[in-house]
Design goal:
The complex is a heterodimer of chains A (455) and B (123). By secondary structure, chain A is mostly helical. Chain A has helices spanning 2-8, 32-52, 70-77, 79-102, 110-119, 123-130, 133-137, 139-150, 169-184, 191-212, 215-220, 222-231, 248-253, 261-278, 281-289, 294-318, 334-338, 343-368, 390-393, 395-424, 432-454; strands spanning 66-67, 236-239, 242-245. Chain A starts with a helix and ends with a helix. In chain B, a hairpin with a 6-residue loop joins strand 5 and strand 6. The chains are: A mainly alpha (455), B alpha+beta (123). Chains A and B meet through helix 2, helix 15 and helix 20 of A and helix 1, strand 8 and strand 9 of B.
């Protein structure tokens, strides 16, 4: 990023902290013992779940969960609460717009940290704890709704009905575009390029919202779809307007299957795996030997990882017999019907991959946010805080936490797939039909552990 | 559900146990030549090509890392650690020393053509 470095000339060392995309030192690899223990645990769990656990499906989105306390339902449904969240979302949006347009093209501009760390990575823990938070905050939903109300139309309806067969595909493409900006473009820390990406995103969302109504945000906004997907692993659900508390497994089962769900999951997992892989010594040495084509190689590798994940999963799903009476579309419908079960594996791996990054660069960003125009201000009073690097100084703890996240994700995923298989597959295929999917899941988990170990 | 929890708890205990096991073992990788005497890395930069090129080098925490640079043009090495050091060098031979005070993978990157020289594995 040459322009950034020239603009950073003359600044103190601290100003250039993030001079390599975002992030300084990266996590140490996990130890061999930990990687092997994780892989063995993944295998053991998979077969234990298959053989030992229940034989009739347990989770039914139509009945699962119990209503949340009445006061909580009243609170979250109240106009004041909705307006408050929308105001918070708009405030974040205005702040981002301010630093993006008027801030300096320096890495100490908090724009990068807010976008890549607090929003992109932070939405995972936020959605795990609070549920579909992006949907509640989304400033673009707010603006779109505001427009619709101004001209007196129903914000839920647009000019056209959102076509069902599009499903989550626009979100999958949007996610791919974002990870491309972050990981491959080489421009991820350049203000003008990142700003252009965000402007395009805002434009597509507002036009989509005007044409298709609010359905577009639920299925086409990459960040809302990501957040709502992760929120299925929280304890918060809704059925017919009633706020429910239910186990994350039951909640996950309630994920609506739509075309493109596999693509969304494949992009999330594939791109995170690519992020590990691209910093490995092997890949760095390889691309630097082929310097003229390293950009092309990185593009191909990103797409290769995403497509590879999708294919492994799809093949894992369809290698079973099905009952046409239960699933009229036959085997080709299975990948979408099982896609919810890889969500926990993806989330476990993402948590492992980004844990220290979120904690340490999240703190960094909070400090930088106090000086939005990079002129030495301390507007929020956080400017003097120092970053706590406890996690980096305790690599064994960090490594164990990462492996625990991966394994926990694997357990939840395997259980979700098992339960769905009992519901969907004909009786005589219920065990053998799960084997290939189980193999795909073990491949994802072990592959993820391998990347944590080797890069 | 009890089965699943048992399995999950078991797996995590196994995983964490293994993690703790590895913690108590001394890390012997690269320790022989780096604990006291520090690590020396010979860097050549000729015709826009750098060597080493993306190699992983293990160094001990707080030890000295010395770069022996032989270059045909001036340039800059950026050390992507939390401290964010920077080494400017002139054409010809020069020697530069730094210390990394935080565990992690730290890339040392040439800027001009952006090329990773080494990845320091600091533990």
């Amino acid at each position: 990023m040459p322009s950034l470095l020239t603009s950073a000339q003359g600044m103190s060392t601290q100003d250039r902290l993030l001079a390599h995309g975002l992030g300084g030192a990266k996590d140490l690899p996990i130890s061999t013992e930990l990687a092997i223990a994780g892989a063995v645990a993944a295998l053991t769990i998979s077969f234990t779940v298959l053989i030992v656990t229940w034989r009739t499906p347990r989770y039914d989105a139509a009945t699962s969960g119990r209503p949340a306390p009445a006061w909580l339902q009243a609170l979250v449904d109240s106009t004041a609460f909705t307006v408050l969240l929308r105001a918070v979302g708009l405030a974040i949006f205005c702040y981002l717009g301010w630093v993006a347009i008027f801030g300096q093209d320096l890495l100490i501009n908090p724009f990068f940290g807010i976008l890549y760390v607090l929003l992109w990575v932070g939405l995972v823990p936020a959605s795990l704890v609070l549920g579909p938070i992006w949907r509640a905050l989304s400033p673009l939903r707010t603006i779109s709704t505001g427009f619709a109300k101004l001209i007196g139309s129903d914000p839920r309806r647009g000019v056209l009905t959102y076509p069902d067969r599009l499903g989550y595909w626009p979100a999958a493409l949007g996610l791919l575009a974002f990870v491309w900006l972050e990981l491959v473009s080489g421009q991820s820390a350049e203000l003008s390029s990142t700003r252009l990406w965000c402007a395009a995103y805002v434009a597509v969302m507002l036009v989509g919202g005007a044409v298709f109504g609010s359905d577009f945000f639920a299925r086409g906004d990459p960040f809302e779809v990501y957040s709502s997907l992760v929120a299925k692993l929280s304890i918060w659900g809704r059925r017919d307007g009633v706020l429910l508390v239910r186990s994350p497994l039951a909640n996950l089962d309630s994920l609506r299957t739509r075309p493109g769900l596999v693509a969304v999951v494949a992009v999330l997992f594939g791109s995170t795996a690519f992020d590990s892989f691209k910093d490995s010594s092997v890949w760095v040495r390889f691309t630097q030997q082929h310097l003229g084509t390293s950009y092309l190689l990185n593009n191909l590798a990103l797409v290769g990882f995403c497509v590879g994940v999708g294919l492994i999963f799809a093949v894992g799903c369809v290698a079973t017999g099905v009952d046409r009476e239960r699933i009229p579309r036959g085997r080709s419908a299975l990948p979408d019907l099982f896609a919810h079960s890889v969500v926990p594996i993806v989330v476990g791996y993402i948590v492992a991959h980004y844990f220290s990054y979120l904690v340490e660069f999240g703190q960094q960003t909070l400090i930088l946010m106090s000086d939005p125009m990079s002129n030495g201000n301390d507007l929020l009073g956080t400017g003097d805080l120092t970053i706590n690097y406890w996690l980096s100084y305790h690599p064994s703890f960090l490594a164990s936490a990462k492996v625990a996240a991966v394994i926990l994700g694997h357990v939840v995923g395997v259980v979700a797939a098992h339960d769905r298989a009992l519901r969907l597959l004909p009786r005589h295929h219920q065990v053998t039909g799960q084997l290939s999917l189980l193999a795909a899941m073990v491949a994802f988990t072990v592959g993820g552990l391998y990347l944590l170990f080797s890069s | 559900m009890p089965h699943i929890m048992t399995v999950a708890v078991f797996a995590c205990v196994v995983a964490l146990g293994a993690g703790c096991g590895s913690e108590s073992e001394p890390s012997n990788a690269g320790a022989g030549d780096s604990v006291n005497s520090g690590t020396t890395i010979d860097v050549t930069y000729q015709d826009g090509k750098v060597s080493p090129s993306g190699e992983r080098v293990q160094v001990a925490l707080d030890s000295q890392v010395t770069f022996n640079i032989d270059a045909d043009a001036p340039g800059e090495l950026h050390v992507h650690s939390a401290a964010g050091d920077e080494i400017e060098f002139d054409a010809g031979k020069s020697e530069h020393t730094l210390t990394v005070e935080q565990p992690g993978i730290v890339e040392v990157e040439l800027h001009g053509p952006d090329l990773v020289v080494v990845q320091l594995e600091v533990e």
